[in-house]
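Possible regression after last week's pipeline update?

I re-ran a chain I had predicted before the update to compare outputs. Posting the input and the new output here so someone can diff against the archived version. Not blocking, just want to make sure nothing changed silently.
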Amino acid sequence: MIEVKGKTGQIQFDGQYVTIIRKGFLARSIVGKGEKRLHISQIASVQWKPAGAVVNGFIQFGIPGGVERRSKFGSQTQDAIKDENSVVFTKQQMPAFEELRKALDAAIAQQHAPQQPTAAAPSVADELTKLGQLLQQGILTQAEFEQQKAHLLGGQ
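New output (post-update):
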């Protein structure tokens, strides 16, 4: 479990879910107090703005169907403060948020990686055909063929 605390909230990530938690007066007055939980499959993008010497940074989650708009120059962080899918952090908090970002990137990549197809188990008919070929080639005796055939058919 990764847990980071920022200036406008905290984020918990357990490998499957991102939970944005806001508490206190500041949260209530700007975005709303409470929790927002997103499954990793719901996150379409992660916007990152590093903190500088005099400006705060933020991490923002884009979700399908969400309304994202481009901020005017110089107002990105101010807009992120008001966004329910963002958490603003200071320069001192940034290393912890960078670790969170790496973990999220890896989990999102894993979520979108093509799944390897599992090899289907050979059918009984396929196995019997192979046994028949081995018998014809003289690799199996008739007794060995009958034994393997009985095993495949469940008779042993």
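Follow-up from reviewer: compared with the archived run. The chain is about 35% helix and 20% strand. Marking as no regression found.
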